[in-house]
Design a protein that fits this description.
Blueprint (H helix, E strand, L loop, with lengths): L5 H13 L13 E6 L5 H17 L2 E6 L6 H13 L4 E4 L8 H9 L3 E5 L11 E4 L2 H16 L7 E5 L6 H14 L17 E6 L4 H14 L5 E4 L2 H13 L7 E6 L2 H8 L5 E4 L2 H18 L12 E2 L3 E3 L12 H5 L5
Parallel strand pairs: 1-2, 1-3, 3-4, 4-5, 5-11, 6-7, 6-8, 8-9, 9-10
Antiparallel strand pairs: 10-12
Helix pairs in contact: 2-10, 5-6, 7-8
Length: 343
């Protein structure tokens, strides 16, 4: 793999050794921006690509897009990064499928002079990339946790199930899960690790792979462990829809609060129909558009993006969506959200 970086690294080394000044600031028509998503079928990533394409067209730069064949296709993302380095791209926007497994490839890309921005999912460690543009996923989880606790009122009898992405402790999965638990009032032992809590209200967690089928299977498994589950947190809205179908098969659909994160149009519609009690909406179009702007600014000025105040990343926004608002937790209605949703 290293051979694909030799040209870029050799050129950079020659300039440094010879004392020759670096290249003049790039013109828009010479700027290539790469976008690498986990897949090209998930509506979240489709909307992300739309945002990047629109901003690239507006700024007059070239956008090249890549995606894995499936969520977790790390090899495809490595190949995409190497292709962009070889093409002379100025920067890469990427939703890493394997936040730890891509670190060496990203390191080499940065050494070749590219700006690398993680979108949505931080790297592990986060400083692997130059910057992260993302939803505050901990806040997204915290909002739905606060809403669920306030809606339930007396939470002493809560029986909580968490329907998570995988067993791999992926950053976005951990942040949403731990944010939800903290928002609900569970003593979170380690915000960076799932499943180490000892609160007796926790029935347990199961994996969904972020799919509707996975959500249904996971809740069916957990209901066999404790049929009194009355609060469910899901990693995303497809998993929430699956959980609802699983609850229906047990005759429990109207007895359980379901909360989630995403803000996709089908999920928001499920809030409107009462299937999901509340969801936290994120903004993939805005995320990608800001990323393209940042790469172009870097290409022209050398300036790297700054984190949002008090955070280790650039926060691209989150809104709680519910038609049953509670005091002290700001929210928008499903009707308002349908005008902003994606997918």
């Amino acid at each position: 793999m290293k051979s694909k970086f030799i040209g870029a690294l050799t050129a950079a080394g020659f300039l440094a050794l010879s004392g020759v000044a670096g290249p003049a600031p790039a013109q828009a028509e010479d700027i290539i921006v790469g976008l690498i998503t986990k897949t090209n079928t998930n509506p979240f990533f489709v909307k992300m690509r739309e945002g990047a394409e629109a901003k690239a067209k507006e700024l007059g730069v070239e956008l090249r897009t890549f995606a894995g064949k499936y969520d977790g296709d790390n090899e495809a993302q490595i190949e995409a990064i190497e292709s962009l380095v070889a093409a002379g791209a100025k920067g890469i926007l990427i939703t890493p499928s394997d936040p730890a497994g891509l670190t060496e490839t990203v390191r080499r890309a940065r050494e070749a002079g590219l700006l690398v921005i993680a979108l949505d999912t931080p790297f592990d460690p986060p400083e692997t990339a130059d910057a992260t543009f993302a939803t505050d996923n901990f806040k997204a989880g915290e909002l739905i946790g606060q809403w669920a606790a306030a809606t339930m009122g007396d939470t002493a009898q809560a029986k909580i199930a968490t329907l998570d992405l995988s067993e791999a402790q992926i950053t976005v999965d951990v942040l949403r899960n731990q944010g939800f638990l903290q928002g609900f009032g569970v003593d979170v032992k380690n915000v960076n690790k799932m499943y180490d809590e000892d609160d007796p209200r926790l029935v347990g967690g199961d994996v969904t792979l972020g799919s509707e089928e996975g959500g249904r299977t996971a809740i069916e498994n957990l209901l066999q462990k404790d049929p009194a589950i009355n609060v469910i947190h899901t990693i995303n809205e497809p998993a929430a829809a699956g959980a609802y179908e699983g609850l229906k098969s047990f005759g429990l659909a109207d007895k359980v609060l379901i909360v989630s994160v995403d803000g996709g149009c089908p999920g928001v519609q499920n809030v409107k129909e009462g299937i999901i009690g509340a969801t936290s909406m994120q903004f993939p179009l805005r995320m990608a558009a800001l990323g393209v702007e940042a790469v172009v600014d870097f290409a022209k000025t050398g300036k790297k993006p700054q984190n949002s105040e008090g955070l280790s990343f650039t926060n691209t926004g989150v809104e709680l969506v519910t038609d049953e608002p509670v005091e002290g937790v700001p929210s928008i209605t499903s009707e308002e959200a349908l005008a902003q949703c994606w997918g």
